[in-house]
From TrEMBL:
<feature type="binding site">
    <location>
        <position position="245"/>
    </location>
    <ligand>
        <name>substrate</name>
    </ligand>
</feature>
<feature type="binding site">
    <location>
        <position position="68"/>
    </location>
    <ligand>
        <name>substrate</name>
    </ligand>
</feature>
<dbReference type="GO" id="GO:0004359">
    <property type="term" value="F:glutaminase activity"/>
</dbReference>
<feature type="binding site">
    <location>
        <position position="118"/>
    </location>
    <ligand>
        <name>substrate</name>
    </ligand>
</feature>
<feature type="binding site">
    <location>
        <position position="162"/>
    </location>
    <ligand>
        <name>substrate</name>
    </ligand>
</feature>
<dbReference type="InterPro" id="IPR012338">
    <property type="entry name" value="Beta-lactam/transpept-like"/>
</dbReference>
<dbReference type="InterPro" id="IPR015868">
    <property type="entry name" value="Glutaminase"/>
</dbReference>
<dbReference type="GO" id="GO:0006543">
    <property type="term" value="P:L-glutamine catabolic process"/>
</dbReference>
<keyword id="KW-0007">Acetylation</keyword>
<feature type="binding site">
    <location>
        <position position="193"/>
    </location>
    <ligand>
        <name>substrate</name>
    </ligand>
</feature>
<feature type="binding site">
    <location>
        <position position="169"/>
    </location>
    <ligand>
        <name>substrate</name>
    </ligand>
</feature>
<feature type="binding site">
    <location>
        <position position="263"/>
    </location>
    <ligand>
        <name>substrate</name>
    </ligand>
</feature>
<comment type="similarity">
    <text>Belongs to the glutaminase family.</text>
</comment>
<dbReference type="GO" id="GO:0006537">
    <property type="term" value="P:glutamate biosynthetic process"/>
</dbReference>
<keyword id="KW-0378">Hydrolase</keyword>
<protein>
    <recommendedName>
        <fullName>Glutaminase</fullName>
        <ecNumber>3.5.1.2</ecNumber>
    </recommendedName>
</protein>
<comment type="subunit">
    <text>Homotetramer.</text>
</comment>
Length: 312
């Protein structure tokens, strides 16, 4: 396999992994007991070119829950299901500068600010089509299969725990129902939202998902289309402006890559047309982003000139 082949880029990634393995800042998410079980030392880096060449180092097989990273991809499915105009009427694309779980809607239109905060993500999930809860979940899992090239499973204890403790998300959903922004199948939509957050992925999956977006929506290994070409730009745009919670502005400034993070410790980041990156390291900073994941992307951007606005 490609990993066995000595390459300067792989050597670089090995050094990068070693450099940040010793960084012990941050804390593993513990808002539900299942996430607190994560080991702080777990650390994987995977980079996949938009042509499908794969490089990986560390814990790239270790499964964890995708959490908020799902939001970007489910947004793409909602665009396919309902079209841009309708989706935009229900969810704006404006960064908030607020925490991901803030209970705030746009005052004029009552829309949630963007699909990457919980409010916008729940409104997005509400738009996923299907005749039953089971069918809607099947469609979401099928979409992720196209992105990753393999069947994914739910972490059922995480799902049940999110559901049992998710009253803040429930409150956000009811506020949106009050304004007529989502349908009244509230518990079904919240279940689907908690389920999409509980999908288990590894760093390689996140690299492949990013590489698929970087490749215009087609998985570069399986050649299967995961997202209609006309919506790839929409998904990547909201990742760039809103993907790293209330760190998004600083992230664009320093790293300059569309990306999405999750409290499970994952980050998926891409260089459009070129590269997908997946990182996994559970300790998070105060804003909920993986500490080592941010460092890895900062170094990659700097050392290879991958910042989107790099003109050197
Ligand atoms: N399931 C989490 C929530 O809805 C997702 C949080 C995240 O990754 N930021 O609160």
């Amino acid at each position: 396999s490609i990993q066995a082949v000595a390459s300067p880029f792989r050597s670089y990634l090995i050094d990068l992994h070693e450099k940040y393995q010793s960084l012990t800042d941050g804390a593993v998410a513990d808002y539900i007991p299942e996430l607190a079980l994560a080991t702080p030392e777990w650390f994987g880096i995977c980079a996949i070119t938009s042509k499908g060449q794969e490089f990986e180092v560390g814990d790239c097989d270790k499964l964890f829950t995708i959490q908020s990273i799902s939001k970007a991809f489910v947004y793409g499915l909602a665009l396919e299901d309902c079209g841009r105009e309708y989706v935009n009427s229900k969810v704006s694309v404006e960064p908030t500068g607020e925490a991901f779980n803030s209970i705030v809607l746009d005052e004029k239109t009552n829309r949630p600010y963007n699909p990457m905060v919980n409010a916008g993500a729940i409104a997005t999930t509400d738009l996923i089509r299907g005749n039953s809860a089971t069918e809607r979940l099947k469609r979401v899992l099928e979409m992720f299969r196209c992105y990753t090239g393999r069947e994914l499973d739910l972490n059922v204890p995480v799902f049940l725990s999110e559901k049992a403790t998710g009253n803040r998300n429930r409150a956000i959903a009811y506020l949106m129902l009050n304004f007529g922004m989502i349908s009244d199948r509230i518990e079904e939509t919240l279940d689907l939202y908690f389920q999409q957050c509980s999908i288990m992925v590894n760093a390689r999956d996140l690299g492949m998902m990013a590489a698929t977006l970087a490749n215009g929506g087609v998985n570069p290994v399986t050649q299967e289309r995961a997202l209609d070409e006309r919506y790839v730009q929409d998904v990547i745009s909201v990742m760039l402006t809103c993907g790293m919670y209330d760190y998004s502005g600083e992230w664009i400034y320093k790293v300059g890559m569309p990306a999405k993070s999750g409290v499970g410790g994952g980050i998926t980041a891409l260089v459009p047309g070129k590269l997908g990156i997946g990182t996994f390291s559970p300790p998070l900073d105060a804003k909920g982003n993986s500490v080592r994941g941010i460092k890895v992307c900062e170094d990659l951007a700097r050392d290879f000139g991958l910042h989107l606005f790099n003109v050197a």
